[in-house]
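Researcher: Going back to the complex we discussed earlier. I've cleaned up the inputs and rechecked each line, so this should be the final set. Can you rerun the prediction on the complete assembly and write out the structure?
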Amino acid sequence: MKRSFRVALLATAATAFLAGAAFADDLVTKDRVGPADAPKTLTLRITGDGPYSNEQAWADGYTKLYSDFIQRHPGWQIKMESMSQNIGQEQARMLEQAKSGNGPDCGSVDSFQLALFMNAKVLQPLNDYFTKEEIADLFPFVRDGITGPDGNIYAWWWDTDLRVLYRNKEIVADAPNTWDELKAAALASKEKGMEGLLVNGGRWEGTTFDWLANFWAQGGELVDASGKPIFAEGENRTKFLKAVNYFKDLVDSGAAPKRIATIVNYDDFNAAAAAGTTALFIGGNWQLGQLKSALEPEEFAKWTFSPIPGPTADQKSTGTGGWTFAAFSKDPEKIAMCAAVIKEIYSGEGNALQQQLPTSKAQFAKFDVFKSEANQAFAAALVNGRARPGVPIYPEISNQIQVMMGDVLAGTKTPEAALDAANAAVQAAYARL
Amino acid sequence: MSVVQPAIGIERSGAARSSLRLRIENNPFSWLVPVALMLGVFYLYPIIDVFRLAFTNATLLGRDEIYTTATFKALLGSPELPDILMTTLVFVAASVIGQQLFGLGIAVLVMRGERRKLKGMTALRTIVLIAWVIPGIANGLIWQMLFSEAPFGAINSVLRMMSIAPVAWLSDPTNAMISAVISNVWRGTAFSMIVFYAALKAIDATLYEAASVDGASSWQRFRHITLPQMRPAILVNSILITIQTLNTFDAIISLTGGGPGRATEVLSLFTFNAVFRNYDLAGGSVLSVLMLVISLVLALGYASMLPRREASE
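Model: Rerun complete. Updated structure for the full complex:
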């Protein structure tokens, strides 16, 4: 009797578990979270940071987070809209849709494009959903980035990232601190059969963003306080050319292969590290986790990172990016639901799941994963962090820097001629804005 | 009576159907209007709107539009445009010539193989067609892996094994254009092959028999029978693939992104960048109008060379 009771109990528990699991799965379908007949609907447009992530661990983690979330918010369903990898196009499309009143209720906005959305007046203030303490605890560049001219916050910047210099300790023992030291280390690595330093140099945003650290480290400014491009004027011009010549010299001297002019993806660095063909590359903090997954433990142990070298040891900078969530709907209930998605799924839990750097000191302290040595080092490096200027002309400045870099690295233009061409194009575009 | 009644009913309904058909045939508007409406909404309206936007200062950034010709002047007078047009000309001309030559070569090969009843001709046609059905973005990515200049890049690895120096397929501006053309020819050859294969099938076999009787060589048969007979097909194919290549940007964006510098930035990619990277809706519209004009001029040029049908035909 006792045995049959135990069996029955076990069977009931197993059924309940399976039913629960099935229920959770049912709540997160291909394009919806929550029951299909729920009366209230929130349309949510996200990047790969969600239940449909290509990283299985992230997909599983977000499926659980969304499933738990929707059970805490009965009566709601979330219609999920996924962005493709072509982020620039996706953001432009979302901006256009939002302007015509057809945007999602809530959506992911790339941090450097947030100002464009704010200027277009398509976002709703989120002040009521975050305490003053929470806002004050954000890193200054994050707080500035989400605050509109009227002092309201128009998004929540939930994760950030930064660029560092990765190196294989077995080949490059000491962290290079200056441009000269990096060049010497890269040339030395070539003598050990490596390619030299790898950096982004092709036609994409990463090229501009990673290179800007060298311009910013000297105190260079792309635009003035009014948003006017000034990178080719006065001292900025000198600093700009110095940073361009630094990259040109890396290629001309052989410290970096000419093929960097074709690199348009951080994954190329992971591939080179896995193939054992490079010992130095400038990449994002998120790549540490990717290297850990891609390399054998003994190989991964050889890799470490340090701040991006500057022209001198005390002149350092690094680009910081990341993603925000913003509310497009004017319905107060939907704005509140959007804020709830941010607070309950992404800001904190999502950071910990993806090991994406949080945007406030409190979050770093809250989750054990960010107490690791590596993440503490990333947090410390954020001191030198700098976000791209949130001005409408930035995309064109970036585009022209990419063109300029290709022309200089391929040797089709001198740095001076390439800068003049870039400036002429940017100023013409600025005049039309 | 009971037999006659249904027959009358059938006759009546048949007469009614015939009358309806006549009415429809006599009033073409009734069936043309839905088609015209569809074409108007989905094809004509966007074109008209592009023309309208070209005469504004519209951006995706949310300011009020004003009507102006300044965008036209700025874009058509921009110092980048001549280089972009030259890059486009080289890319389109090389791609069209390459696709036609390879398409014709493969079509002739398949025809000859079929005439000799060789095995594997269907497989050959299928293999060529596989490249055609691959999306542009995937095509670019495939060739990016092949042309990769990393030590583990596919083509360069093979060259190294053959003790040949690796080639800067994508980082050298000239080679980057050649690489972009190769990838586009690889993808587009199948379309030309299908058109030419159909045209070759339609050539009257007695022409070749008569030529053989007269002692014509293979080259003479090709030069004096095949090519003249295929002229309409070659011209129509030229129109189609020129316009298609002019609009190609997906394969380039994933292969080179338009770089290094602007070495492979064709007009369609320049237009895409204007709208989706610089948010310049009016500028993108001006460039779209320019592309439309170029396509129309080229199409009319080709069409004027098409043989005209005789009035009696």
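Model: Worth noting: Chain A touches chain B through 49 residues (CB under 8 Å).
Researcher: Good, that matches what I expected from the previous run.
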